[in-house]
Write a structure and sequence with these properties.
2 strands, mainly alpha, 2% strand
Length: 178
Amino acid sequence: GLDEEKIKSKLTSEIELVQKMTNYHIQTNGKRLRALLTLGSAKLCGYTKGGRDINLAACVELIHSATLLHDDVIDVADLRRGKKTLNSIWGNQSTILIGDYLLSRCFEMMVEDGNLEILKLLSSTSAQIAQGEVLQLQHKNEIDMLEETYLKIISSKTAALFAAATKVGAILSNSETR
């Protein structure tokens, strides 16, 4: 399965602060739902060769992590999953940059995997999440937000990555049989 060591090894950096912040973030690990969905869908679709599923599950997790870090800055959050947020410890500037670093590493891993369809899917999903964030920010203080707007926000911010996670597994097993 997907372990912390896998993600940690992908995030090693010579920059001490980068290392410190990414380690801290990984230790506040959540349920890894999106990663599990990626692994589960790959298995369900009959993917058997090698560890590409684990690599891509780590990718999906990194996209999610990056959005959480950026989210915490936007929401001026002090706690996430009962632990202090990176921004409350190291400040907004470093946290934004670490979010960018996680995304960059993720794209490196996708390029390494070499499947263009997956690269296309996950990059457009990342763009969709960012747009959902902006939309949410635009409508931040509206008490009477339209249901349509609300649904657009949550489908971009949350549903898009869940959907992509399951598609990745399907694409993987599909590319195996070609």
